[in-house]
Design brief:
The chain is α/β, with parallel strands linked by helices and 242 residues long. It has a single domain, classed as Nucleotidyltransferase, domain 5 (2-Layer Sandwich), CATH 3.30.420.10. The protein has 9 helices and 6 strands, in the order ββααβαααβααβααβ. It has a 6-stranded mixed beta sheet with strand order 5-4-1-2-3-6, sandwiched between helices. The longest helix has 20 residues. The protein is globular.
Length: 242
């Protein structure tokens, strides 16, 4: 199983942090990449696909983004899973070393662990290949090996080794770009008031909702497999989960 992960809502003005993930079998991943390459050749569009580009793009480019989204639902089983975190519920200083970077890694651990437990059998867990959209690590994160510890804690929770887990430049992986698009749209739906919403972003967010059959700003039942939205609530006893 191949899992691409991304985050959005990290600006200080954002009320919610969103950690997103896209899950696809390794055999289907190669098929997805081939279809994306064909789409790019036919459309002559080679730039990185990102939610942040949606605001000022042409109608032709918006259509290209919709075709890209369509590929994920074209006979290729894919699952989208998110955790939404209300930042005001976090005690950064007490539990997270006053670092939103550490928070991102902790919730990445929770997201992977939660859904692997719910939907994967023991054999599939052992074959997890996890990539994270690359970001600049802080000095503290490097010195204290936060990313390595995230992998270690996740493996301990799953009770099996992870085949591969590391940051990835999104330019080289279409699934990471798909995750960026869906995670950005989800964060937009949770964080952006109506007065600040933009036509093209609304159009693409609405398109994603039609394709998934789910509202991006609403939680789903825990049993939803293909599109699962989890709004995290802290334990009344602790937040020290990593």
């Amino acid at each position: 199983m191949f899992v691409a992960c991304d985050e959005s809502g990290i600006q200080a003005s954002d009320k919610y942090l969103v950690i997103g993930s896209v899950w696809m079998s390794k055999s289907k991943l190669s098929e997805f990449e081939k279809k994306v390459t064909t789409l790019r050749l036919n459309s002559k569009c080679w730039g990185e696909i990102k939610w942040n580009k949606v605001r000022s793009m042409s109608n032709d480019m918006l259509s290209f983004y919709k075709f890209f989204i369509d590929l994920a639902f074209d006979d290729i089983p894919v699952c989208f899973r998110f955790v939404v975190v209300e930042k005001s519920l976090l005690n950064l200083k007490k539990y997270h070393e006053n670092s939103i970077e550490l928070v991102r890694l902790k919730f990445l651990h929770l997201l992977i662990s939660r859904y692997a437990d719910k939907f994967l059998d023991g054999k599939t867990k052992k074959g997890l290949h996890i990539v994270i959209d690359e970001f600049e690590e802080s000095r503290q994160a490097k010195e204290e090996h936060w990313q390595q510890k995230t992998r270690k804690y996740t493996e301990s929770h799953l009770e099996c080794p992870i085949e591969h887990m590391q940051p990835c430049n999104s330019h080289i992986c279409s699934l990471v770009q798909l995750c960026d698009l869906f995670t950005g749209a989800t964060s937009y739906s949770w964080n952006t008031p109506e007065s600040k919403r933009r036509l093209q972003k609304n159009e693409l967010a609405n398109y994603i909702e039609r394709k998934t059959g789910k509202k991006l700003d609403s939680v789903t039942l825990p049993t939803e497999k293909e599109f699962n939205m989890w709004r995290w609530k802290p334990s009344p006893f602790k937040q020290t989960f990593l």
